[in-house]
Here is the input.
Amino acid sequence: MSRQDTTPGASTAIGAALYSLATRAARRLPRDMSLTSAATLATLARTGPRRITDLAAVEGVTQPAMTALVRVMEESGLVERRGDPSDKRVTLVCLTEAGASYVRTRHQAGVHAFERLIGELTGDEVEALAAALPALKHLADLENQDRERPKQ
Here is the structure.
């Protein structure tokens, strides 16, 4: 089915349902750190070590705010700063093992929360979601690509 063949308003209805689901999921996450801190850790887990300026651009915050955030996460043992082997003038922010473990644990908690909810759906509803998996995964990939572009 091409984009032109979809029912008018389907994108809006799907977008509204996904947005509602995402915001409710975010509310269920542990409140042990800010969403920006958690998002920064997830970015580092997904993309590897980054400069503070890159992290600030990706997360949509100022460089001073990201510097302060990194300092707090560094004091908590979640990240560390290392020199860039290709450019000794550059410092990169890297996940520590504790940071990587935190990201994995938080991700798994989110997966389990959705598993519980999916367990309450009918068989037909679960099949519909399973059929939509390729599109949902592609949507997530597109969102990740968009997040990696610095905000204007």
